[in-house]
Amino acid sequence: MAGIVVVFDFDKTIIDCDSDNWVVDELGFTDLFNQLLPTMPWNSLMDRMMKELHAQGKTIDDIAEVLKRTPLHPRIVPAIKAANALGCELRIVSDANLFFIETILEHLGLKEYFSEINTNPGFVDGEGRLRIFPYHDFTKCSHGCNLCPPNMCKGMVIERIQASLEGKKKIIYLGDGSGDYCPSLKLGEADYMMPRKNFPVWDLICRNPMLIKAEIHEWSDGEELERLLLQIINMISVEENNGSSAQLISVDCKLQTISASTHEALPQALPVPQ
């Protein structure tokens, strides 16, 4: 299955919370965060919060320990490992930051499964303070997309990924937030969009599903994410083998691998609220 690239958002997709809020809340800085929130862009605010944490004696180890407690659905790790075992290339496109993401992935034993992480730079400086910078330096110029926050246009990242792919590779994109809407518009007819149901990207897609060229399959939790993701991968595998008997992976989640004769088991249409 070298022909599939699975692109994951991170916050509320791989993990079940917003990593920025999780760290701030768990370390007891929620009130200060809420006080400063109206005064600066989110990305700049997180860098400021790391400065405040450092000034109050919170260490990088304190932050890392909080990140290791980040909640996630128990089927997410098996889903990622199964997609990798099927030969898919896995990437992350996230508006979190590199330190948070890498710390969590390393704790879960998942970092090696991803070929690329596209996110806001985050690193520890010489004073032991975590610094967070924007993926796109909006202080110098705008990325020009009015759908996305000033620090990152995920649609531009997807376009770069598309331009780098060789051959007829399909993209499966999983996300939840409003920032995942722009990249969903960049996907082609051979691609798949997996929005988290009743989250911002789902609401935006439901306003006009016809704007999305990719096939849409919504999911609600980690169990449904795993089931649908592996069904789609297996379906593509069957199609690429022209309906012949394909080697399909079995997973321990009561997943019934699909064949060419059972495509109707996979929902094809996006239900739109009336």
Automatic annotation (TrEMBL):
Please give the Pfam families that the UniProt record associates with this protein.
Answer: Put_Phosphatase
Q: Which domain of life is it from?
A: Eukaryota
> Which residues are annotated as active site?
D9, D11
Q: Which Gene3D superfamilies does this one have?
A: HAD superfamily/HAD-like (3.40.50.1000)
Q: What InterPro entries does the database record attribute to this sequence?
A: HAD-like_sf, HAD_hydro_PyrdxlP_Pase-like, HAD_sf, Pase_PHOSPHO-typ
Q: Does the keyword rRNA-binding apply?
A: no
Keyword Hydrolase part of the UniProt annotation: yes
UniProt binding sites for substrate: D20, D95
| Official protein name in the record | Inorganic pyrophosphatase 2
> What is the originating organism of this protein?
Theobroma cacao
